[in-house]
Each structure stands twice: as C-alpha cells, then as structure tokens.
Amino acid sequence: xxxxxxxxxxxxxxxxxxxxxxxxxxxxxxxxxxxxxxxxxxxxxxxxxxxxxxxxxxxxxxxxxxxxxxxxxxxxxxxxxxxxxxxxxxxxxxxxxxxxxxxxxxxxxxxxxxxxxxxxxxxxxxxxxxxxxxxxxxxxxxxxxxxxxxxxxxxxxxxxxxxxxxxxxxxxxxxxxxxxxxxxxxxxxxxxxxxxxxxxxxxxxxxxxxxxxxxxxxxxxxxxxxxxxxxxxxxxxxxxxxxxxxxxxxxxxxxxxxxxxxxxxxxxxxxxxxxxxxxxxxxxxxxxxxxxxxxxxxxxxxxxxxxxxxxxxxxxxxxxxxxxxxxxxxxxxxxxxxxxxxxxxxxxxxxxxxxxxxxxxxxxxxxxxxxxxxxxxxxxxxxxxxxxxxxxxxxxxxxxxxxxxxxxxxxxxxxxxxxxxxxxxxxxxxxxxxxxxxxxxxxxxxxxxxxxxxxxxxxxxxxxxxxxxxxxxxxxxxxxxxxxxxxxxxxxxxxxxxxxxxxxxxxxxxxxxxxxxxxxxxxxxxxxxxxxxxxxxxxxxxxxxxxxxxxxxxxxxxxxxxxxxxxxxxxxxxxxxxxxxxxxxxxxxxxxxxxxxxxxxxxxxxxxxxxxxxxxxxxxxxxxxxxxxxxxxxxxxxxxxxxxxxxxxxxxxxxxxxxxxxxxxxxxxxxxxxxxxxxxxxxxxxxxxxxxxxxxxxxxxxxxxxxxxxxxxxxxxxxxxx
Length: 722
Prior knowledge:
Elements: E1 9-15, E2 19-26, E3 31-39, H1 48-63, E4 70-75, H2 79-86, E5 92-98, H3 100-109, E6 115-118, E7 121-123, E8 125-131, H4 138-151, E9 155-160, H5 168-179, E10 183-186, H6 187-190, H7 196-208, H8 210-226, E11 233-236, E12 242-244, H9 245-250, H10 261-269, E13 276-281, E14 286-292, E15 295-296, E16 298-303, E17 306-313, E18 315-318, E19 324-329, E20 332-340, H11 341-344, E21 347-348, E22 361-365, E23 375-379, E24 388-389, H12 392-398, H13 410-424, H14 428-453, E25 462-466, H15 470-481, E26 484-487, H16 494-501, E27 504-511, H17 517-533, E28 542-548, E29 553-560, H18 569-572, H19 576-587, E30 593-599, E31 603-614, E32 619-623, E33 626-630, E34 635-639, E35 643-648, H20 652-663, E36 665-667, E37 670-672, E38 675-680, E39 683-686, H21 693-703, E40 712-718
Parallel strand pairs: 1-4, 4-11, 5-8, 5-9, 9-10, 13-25, 21-24, 25-26
Antiparallel strand pairs: 1-2, 2-3, 6-7, 11-12, 13-14, 14-15, 14-18, 16-17, 19-20, 22-23, 27-29, 28-29, 30-31, 31-32, 31-33, 33-34, 35-40, 36-37, 38-39, 38-40
C-alpha cells in the first residue's frame, strides 16, 4: 500500500485473555487502517510473545504496510500480572544495608516474611544484611550473594535505609551481581519514596519477574526487528502510558496490572474523552474507570493485599459482560455471570443460524468444576452441535440496543427467547429486560461509587463504551441512570488502538516535607528528561505536578509523543455556528442558553446556563457549567462552574495572585487555593495538583516561558469545597 504524505502509522497489539488483536492506525488522522486477530498463545513455548508477533505479521500481510512505514510499534502484556498471580516467579536474594541504630530497623523491614502474591502463591526470598557505617566492602557482598544463590536465589535486590538519597551502595551491589552473571534491581531505581518495607517489597516484585519478562522482551524485539521494522518498540504501562522496551527490561513491574490501561489510553487519545466514565465490556468482565479533566484517575497498586510503590489506573472490574450466562432457580432468574458462554463451551444464540435451534430444552449446568450448578444452557436436537445460552448480548439484540458489531441473527434470538420466556411465564421482551436489569445492576453500583469517589457532577457525566460487548450493557445502563452515552468507533479493537496511540509516560516521586520552588522545578525537569530518554520529542512533552502535604510527597508525571504531530487543523476547523451547536448538544439541556466566553487560536470556552427544578419544582438550582472545545468540536475540559479571567503572559502573575487571593477557601487544613487551568494557544495547562499560590505561579511561569510575552492566556478557576 502506497504511503500517503504525512502519514504516521503506528501499530498497537493488545494481548487479551482469549485473542490478541493488532491494529494499524494513522496517528495523524486518527483513522484505523487495518486490524488482525489471532488466539492468544498462552501455552506456546514462546508464551504470549508468539501471538504478538503472529498478529503483527498477519496485520502487515493483510494491509500491505511496509516495515519502513511504521513509526512506532507497541504492545500490551499480561505476563507480569499472570506470573505474579500464578506464582511463576524467580526466588529473590535481598542484600540489605543500613547504619548504626537505623540499621536494626532496616534489617527487620527489608526481610520479607511469607510474602503472598496470590492465595497459596508465595515469593521465596533469601536475606543478608550489612552495616555500612564504615563503607561497603565488595568481597563480603560477593560472598553473601554466592551464599544466597546456593540457597536458591536467582535474582538480587539491593536496598539500603535512605538509599533514595544516596543510592551508590545499592548500585554497587547490583553491579557485583551483574558481574557474577545475575540480574539485579536497586530499590532506589524503582522508587524514590521513603518507606523501606514498601520499597523493598516493590523492588523484590520487580526482580522476581525479570528473568521471564526479559526473555519475552528479547524474543519479541528480535522478531520485530527480523520483520524489518526499525521503529521504536514500546510496552504498555499500568498507568495508561507506554515505555520503551529497554526501560521495561529495567522496571518490568510497571507493566503489572496494565490489562485495562490500553482501553483507557484509547478513550483519551482516540475517543477523545475529557470527562466521563469509560466502560470497557469484554466477554467475561467489564472494566470501569473515570477520566476527569483529561486525565485517568490513578491509585497505588496492590498485590496480595500488599501496597506497592507502583501507580496503576483506578479501574473497577465487575464479573459481568457481553457473554455472561444466566443463573436461575425454578421460574426465577437469580443472577447473571460471572461465568461466560465461551468458558462454558456454549455458543451465543446471536451467532447461530435458526435451523440449528431444533426442539430447544433448558437445562441447569455446572460450566467448570467448582461452579454452581444453576447456570442456564439450552440444548438443541441437531446432532453434534454444542449447546447455546442467553447472554446480555442476546437480550440487548432483542430489544434493539445493538447496532453494528455484535448485532446478531434476529430470527435465532427471537426463537430462543420465545421458548425461554414461555418457560419463565414471561413475554420475550420482558425476560430480556430482566436479564439486562440484573446484569447492569452490577455496573450501576460501580458507576455510582465512582461518581461519589471522584465528586463528579452526575448531570455532566457521559458513559463511553468500548470493547466488543459495549452495546450489550452501556446503552441500557445509561438509560437506567438517565446519563448520556456514546459507543466508541471500532469498539471491538479499542484496546489495541489505545496501545498504538499511547503516550510515552513516566512519573517521578519524592518525599519532601516543605517543597521549595526549586524542589518542584527539579522534579518536574527530571520527569521531562525521563520521557525524553525514551524517545519523546521535547516539544510534545507535558508535565503535571502534584503536591501532597499529608504524605509529604511531590509527584511529577510527564507525557510525550515520539513525533511532532503535523495535522492540518485548519482543514478540520468547525465554523463558529457549528461549534455553538456542538456546545448546545454537549450541555445536554434543550432549554439552556449558551455563550462563548473567549477563545484562543485553537480552543474556545463556552458557558451553558439553565435552571434545574428541585423538590417537585418548588425550588430551582442555577447551573452554569463551563466547557472548553477545540476547533474540531471535541470537548477538552468540563467544569461544573468556573470563574473566568483573560490576561497575557506578561500580566499572568498579577492576575493569578489576585484570583487566588480572592477565591481561596479555608478549613481545618488551612487555605485551599482554587483549581486553576490555563488556556493558551492549543494547550490546557492543569495546575490543580498544587497547594499554594507560590507553587501555582511558579509552575505557570515555567509552562509559559516559550510563549511570547503578549500571548493571551485565559484563566479558569473553581473554588474547592472544604
């Protein structure tokens, strides 16, 4: 296939539980060029790496894309998570260090006793301690490593009390291990946070999966290079970003729990959600997450109930999806799932021909040993044919919610619902609605929790569906909750698209009691340099800084792309009247008035205004949400309410000083400055993670230093609630 001018082709490969999907995406136009699918190769000698390579080769063959046309190739991996859950890990030798009295505590906190990875799966560790008050002697360290290797250790972890401040000893131990032909991890290279017990635990988990992950990484990279692709090879991280394969070899733990991350990355980059709840529906389970102010919500990861110094997306998983089977007792539907049709060896009624369904008979089955015996199967007379079942996919098809992907054979669906509805004494449509009610109850519970946890304005929430089963659950859930909903284009391969479009990401964290301006700027610079080393173009890098006074912690998260985007935005620009209409639709209230507050060259700010009846219409609440749109009509930021101030780069300091001083709220924790966003040219600068006026002004100046002094800056601010 001939390469079009300015085309930037990215390949994304998502390793799922059943299938591995590969897609080619034109990153400039956000267009899907081609897709391929192969069964995930869990049991192959090469492991899931074989499926990654096979899907890539099939994709190149089907699309005719030449290796030299590919600008980036990235893949997700379930290997780290699976290894930990299955206990398929290498025993770890821990070399701990400390000084004097603090060393006694270090000796205890660095010893991992009965470290359970999953029920019945323990990580084996071997421990040695050195007092380094008078320095570190290499020969005793080498002897200690030889001893713990003889005991069974395969990889080495080096950890020292306060090693984050002075990592030299940790790195010396690792260099000794590497000279002996062993893999090693310095705890300070995994996390710069204090807390020796958690840091040791995190480093040990990183080390125990290194042998297997390195073997897979090497095999994948060799196969990719053998195909002629010389583009950067990236791997999905658990926080929704990507990192280069060389960084993955050093910190494989960052891929742990990254399964749902690819879908969230697609929600941000492909579906372009700025605020909403993303619901990715598979065949067996559904992943639900929040995107707020253009950012996915992040939390600390845990394994076996143990907290780690690893960031992962806050994704809530429920055991209900497009293929979940009904459970019943007598004439009553008692549950849906968690077992799914394909695991039980049954077929979806939606995807069989009507002539297969002869003399259907409903039976209770136990899908796999240990399951309850009340799952519904529908046996048919046709010789040699596996049984069928009903799932949310059939119910949503019968009621007309599914269009396009997963749309089934209406005659087959009707035939089975006529029979099963009769068995339950209900008309088919009522029984289908009951299936969806029971199924979506589980989704609704999680959505409600997320709305509360992240203080979302429910009237502004949109449910966005991805995954092959999105049509089975998302529209019905939104209808019940009176929320807007949208199904992603190419939903069935949304995770693979997310892998292809993922941004290079890294996070730097430090424990600092009272961070100065220099402290914050230094950590910000370190994060930016980290993603540059992985291939991000400097002009694409954005850094968000957060200060947590309670945890005495400063975090900087940098994201960037491997190439400058060359999209011709002028060709995609909507006319002013089209944008105004887009705004009216986005506010979702037919009676609202919409005004444009201001604009930059690429971004426009609109405010909606309407009165919402309360208490049976006796009272009214005034709503004035503010949305920021880009010139393509995509909502980039939503705020339930906001103060607006126009200024320039030159006058920004004074404008911020005045705005913050007059809109700081006070409570038991002291003064809380308003949430601040700066709109300049095509950028939205998020300053909401900062906790005082000096920090906000300092970071704002750094963010705007490359703009001309007379560049217009639009400030949006929202008071924090105490």
